[in-house]
Amino acid sequence: MTIAIVGVGETDYAWKEPRSPAALAVDAVQRALADAGMTGADVDGFVTESYTLANRAPADFVAAHIGVQDRAFTAHAGIAGSGTVGAPALARLAIESGRASVVVSYYAINLSARGAGGAYQVHAGDKAKAAFEMPFGFYGQPVYFAAAAARYRHLYGLEPEQLGAIAVAARAHAQRTPNALRHEPLTMDDYLANAMVADPLRKLDCCLVNDGGVAFVMTTLERARDLAHPPVVVAGAGFGSKPISQSGYFSQSADLLTTPAGISGPNAYRDAALEPSDVDFAEIYDCFTISMLLQLEDLGFAEKGTGAAFVATGATAPGGSFPVNTHGGLLSQSYLVGGNHVVEAVRQLRGERGEAQLDRAEVALVAGLGAPEHATLLLTGDR
């Protein structure tokens, strides 16, 4: 059975949002349902990423507040981006098996309420990290990904301008995205003058830290054809993981330069009977510039070790040969663990992006990294 995404919704992204994650999730879901021309009474299934409960936005709360009459199916997928982007794989199984007919996925977060530790307080809850890493200083995500960037630089060469090309391209896309949090122009000189956080990563290599919610609605393609917008078909979905725990992924992995996108990507391509050359644009999880670069290679858009030179040509920027993160991504639009990447792909495929609409937008790839897991989604129009 083929399913489609029929509605998408985002809250108004903010640096500091007084509402709870649960309230943000309800807002995003209601917007997605309105976009689909549906109500909560149509919904009978939910698929969210595994940390949704930790973020205090459980499905029972959301269901009760949107008017769901029978929550027949509830499931949780992988961590962060892998679970959010990979949700359609589980939704398809639920719909195929008759467990649900309309499935909603959502994600909401309120990082500003977490205090000085922000997004990285979660690491303090890991006893191994607290005992063996943190006594030697701050060891959050920027340090982890800086190690991968340093390894890439050692093996293949990596100039500051090459990482900068990713950040500059993301900002150029964000400038054409009305709800992006970062609209101010960003030049390469600006990037090079930016403060170093963990060599070779600057602050501009790091994703935003903000509050918000995002949601999307899925149902059968047959039903989708009778709804408000042209269906966006889930052509393929793949999931993969590396044989290591999350706590050990960044500091204990034997290979920092191969992400599980190298597993989920081929799975998704097979599922969709497509190849990398068929993809017109991509929305790739960009918690850091180096993470986007590594996935770009692992997904088959550049050979290993050549992605840095590829992005330096401007290929991923507006007007480039292979646009990536056409909303500004996690670097310049909003940090919503890849849910906003799904929303952007849907809007591009529906031809709704105005000034930012791509000339060719028939096949989209969305990638979600939730180390040690990864999800790849291939979306198309109703072909």
Summarize the structure.
The protein has 15 helices and 11 strands. With 383 residues, it is an alpha/beta fold.
Structural features, described:
This protein is of the alpha/beta class and 383 residues long. It has one domain (3-113, 208-380): Peroxisomal Thiolase, Chain A, domain 1. Helix content is 37%, strand content 18%. The chain has 15 helices and eleven strands. A nine-stranded mixed beta sheet has the order 3-2-4-7-1-8-11-10-9, with helices on both faces. Strand 10 and strand 11 (373-380) form a beta hairpin. Helix 7 (160-174) packs across helix 12. The longest helix has 17 residues, at 80-96. The protein is globular, with a radius of gyration of 19 Å. The mean pLDDT is 94.
CATH hierarchy class name: Alpha Beta
What's the CATH architecture name?
3-Layer(aba) Sandwich
Number of domains: 1
Number of helices: 15
**Proportion of residues in β-strands:** 15-25%
Low-confidence runs: none
* Class inferred from helices and paired strands: alpha/beta
The total beta strand count reads 11
Radius of gyration: 19 Å
Average predicted local confidence, pLDDT: 94
